[in-house]
Amino acid sequence: MEPVTVLVVDDHPLVRRGLSTLLGLEDWVGRVVEAGSVREGALAGAAEGVDVAVVDLGLPDGSGVDLVTRLRRAPGCPVLVLTMTRDEQAVRACLAAGATGYVLKDSPPDVVVRAARTVLDGGLVLGPEVAPAALGTHRPAALPAPLDRLSPGDLRLLTLLAQGRTNGQLARELGVAEKTVRNRVAILLGVLGVADRVQAALLARDRGLLGPA
């Protein structure tokens, strides 16, 4: 793949520069753009051809959730939230706004880098500290609508998708081609009546497939 442009939004210059340096070492990163506020992040997202954004929640001129919403209006700009906030409501608000990743700042550097790459590749990433509260891990005895319309294979696909698997990972685990995965995911989203993977994951959680909300 061609090297991509990453947007890093954090109001602490040392954190911002450190993360930019870390990401800049990756061969898949061609350029890192920095911003320190919601306004700067939104302007950069609109003008810099950003491929993926890493956003903090605590910004001086507004909430990172608002910035997630604004960045998601730009097609092809997935957002990873990198913050110290563990609050479940914050996690759910970010996912509802369109973020496809949420990890904590005290995560190891390689975890943060992998999370950014997974989000770029279309996966869903939740750090282990926030995933249980946000999605859960248990399955109910009886499935409510619309999950009751899914085949066992589709239920497995939905579960793996909600756990953050990329198309490549899904293809390997299911033993099919990536094109087949893309087609199956598109059909699954249509059956569920949702627009994207995040909405599918939230629906699975809210209907109890992955555990209590």
UniProtKB/TrEMBL annotation:
GO terms for biological process: phosphorelay signal transduction system; regulation of DNA-templated transcription. This is Response regulator transcription factor. Keywords: DNA-binding, Phosphoprotein. The keyword DNA-binding applies. Residues 143-208 form the HTH luxR-type domain. CDD domains: LuxR_C_like, REC_NarL-like. Gene3D superfamilies: 3.40.50.2300. Residues 5-120 form the Response regulatory domain. It holds the Pfam family GerE. It comes from the Bacteria. The modification 4-aspartylphosphate is found at residue 56. The keyword Cell membrane does not apply. GO terms for molecular function: DNA binding. PROSITE patterns: HTH_LUXR_2, RESPONSE_REGULATORY.
